[in-house]
Each structure stands twice: as C-alpha cells, then as structure tokens.
Amino acid sequence: MTVLTTPAPTASAAVAQARSAAIEAEIARDPGRFRVLTGDRPTGALHLGHLLATLDNRVRLQDAGVDVVLVVADYQVITDRDDTGDLPAVVREVVLDYLAAGIDPARTTVFTHSAVPALNQLLLPFLSLVSVAELERNPTVKAEAVDAERRQGRGMSGLLFTYPVHQAADILFCHGNLVPVGLDQLPHLETTRTVARRFNQRYAAARPYFPEPEALLTPSLTVLGDDGAKMSKSRGNALELRASEDETVAFFRRARTDSERHIAFDPEGRPEVANLLRIGAHFAGTTPEDLAASVADAGAGRLKAVVTEAVVEGLRPLRERRRALAADAPAVVRDVLARGNARANAVADRTLADVRDLMGTVYS
Ligand code: TRP
C-alpha cells in the first residue's frame, strides 16, 4: 500500500491551493459562514483510505463548527453497475463508520439520496443548463466510464454521464458553499459552479439565488492497497476500518515493499515504502521522514511491525466505538437516517419551492 503525492500543481491547482489556505483561515475565524456538502457512494464499508483522505477531515470541520452535510449517495451506486449488492447492509456499515470516526448526528446531517425527492427533482432544470459537449469533457466521468467498460463490459449509462449535474443538486439543494475535494475532483465542482451561475443568470438575475461553491483542497493522500494500487473497495485491496486486529496484521504482512533494505522516504522512487511511512506517521503523530530515520537499516520487516502497531493502536478507539454501536446497529442507523433525511427533506422542499417560484412554474 502506498500514499501518493498529489499531481504536479498546475496554474489552476496553485490558485485553488492558495484560496483553500485563505478559506481555512476564514473557517478558524467564522466557521458558521460555511456549509460543507460531501459524501460517499455506498459500495462497501469504508476503509483506511477514506479515513485518511476524507473522513478525518470532515470530523475536523464539524468540530470546528462548520455545518457539515453528508450524502450517502445511493443513486450513484447504480451509475456503473447492475448489481448493487445488499444496499441496506452497506448503508448501515457506512453510517456506522461515520459515527465511529466521530461524525455527530446532532450536528452533522447524514442523509440518503433516494429519500429526498425534491433534491432529485432539481436535476431536471439543472440538466437544461449544461450541454452534452460540456459533459463529455469531464475527465473524471471519462475515466469512470473506461473503468465500467473494463470491469463489467458495459457502456456508459445516462446516469454516469450526468452524475456531475446530480452532484450539483446534492451541493446546491442545501446551499452548500464549500466542498472538500482532491485535485482530481475539481472538474466536478466546476460543473456545480457553472450550474449555479447559469441558474442565477437565467432565473435570479436581480438577486443570485445559489452560491457558487468553492473547493476546499484536501491534503490529498492516496492510500495504496496491499497490491500497490490505490486502495479501493472494488479492487479488493483495502483495509476496512471495521477489520479486526488480526486482519490488520495480515494486511500489512501482505503489503508490498521493495528489495532495498535501507528505509528512506522517497515517494517518487519507492511508492510502496513511502505509503507505509505515511500511514505509520499519521497514526504515530510523526513525519514520514522521522519514521524512516527511526527504522533505517532495520529494513522492511521492522517498518511493517512499527506501522502495524501504530495502526492497531491508532484505530483502537474508533473500532471500540464501532463495536459498541454495531451492537444496536439497526436502531442506531435508522435513527440517524430518519433524523438526517427529515432535515434534508425540509431543506430540499424549501429550495425546490424557491426554484419553482423563480422559474415561474407555480400555477396555483
Ligand atoms: N461521488 C462522491 C464519492 O463517491 C460522493 C458524492 C455524491 C459527493 N455527491 C457528492 C461528493 C457531492 C461531493 C459532492 O465519493
């Protein structure tokens, strides 16, 4: 497994990074100005990659006083597959992972796409605001379509093609103004900004109705799985947060390293070793460089032992919370979603009513 660095910054990435730093300062000053919308496709229980790349950051924002809204994007599961698996069971696992990681349902809204009809209805006017040519240029959709073709031999579905616009509905239904993203997600946010801008121009010229949400660039850590590729549920190379201690030990035993004995932090040249160093450093509260120096000539075996220990200890509180919650899982999760869906529906109903008003489609 490995943690890769972000791609070489382009001009627009540099601008986004500078803006994100300014937003962080603003969050520290006035967190109540921000509503963050983000979420996950419920295709499996969450893993170490989710925790390091997104989940910890969401909890940080929540605890800083930002209004966080999390969509469990069940309609996104059917963008690229026919078999959704046992959705109620998967959604339950994802919600348990959120709670165990520190998401507090009293402060953070957790809802599912399919339970919020007014959100989904926004997709229709929003689709009218973008062209097919624009949708075709989205590099992430292209990459996902290639992946769906390779994995399941199926062509791109209409829902996959249009899901960036659906994400615009996810973000705008609640007037989200901040979206934590990795660099590869910037094109999606551009779609949302375009939809918001064009809606305002066309229907709310006098007083803009939707915010143009901004990206909060996350210090993007790509955690690698035990096969050296990016950790992902669908590759079967992930360490799930809910895994046992024994499974964690076995995972790191399988993890790839390289044939050089001396351990050093070299993300470009030695991605697998760098990945272990980043994960270990994260949980041990040190830097990859210092961790590398402490292992040095003791080699990959020692490195794995140190990282395994740090992860097992670091995840212990999360796993204990998760086990306690899981004992009451159906009821706990039902309550969280009932509350979150009710909140999301109230907000979405209001937004759709405003949108119909602005579009002149209220007839009685
Ligand atoms: N596509 C995201 C994922 O799989 C989940 C998601 C759905 C999302 N809607 C969103 C993220 C809107 C950000 C904004 O991880």
TrEMBL record:
Source taxon at top rank: Bacteria
Record's keyword terms, sorted: Aminoacyl-tRNA synthetase, ATP-binding, Ligase, Nucleotide-binding, Protein biosynthesis
Q: What is its EC number?
A: 6.1.1.2
Q: Which InterPro entries match?
A: aa-tRNA-synth_Ic, Rossmann-like_a/b/a_fold, Trp-tRNA-ligase, Trp-tRNA_synthetase
Among PANTHER family, the record links this protein to:
TRYPTOPHAN--TRNA LIGASE, MITOCHONDRIAL
What are the GO MF terms of this UniProt record?
A: tryptophan-tRNA ligase activity
Q: What class of enzyme is it?
A: ligase
Indicate the segments annotated as coiled coil, or none if absent.
Answer: none
Q: Which family does it belong to?
A: Belongs to the class-I aminoacyl-tRNA synthetase family.
Question: Which Pfam families does the UniProt entry name for this protein?
Answer: tRNA-synt_1b
Protein's UniProt name: Tryptophan--tRNA ligase
What Gene3D superfamilies does the record point to?
HUPs, Tyrosyl-Transfer RNA Synthetase
Q: Which organism is it from?
A: Isoptericola peretonis
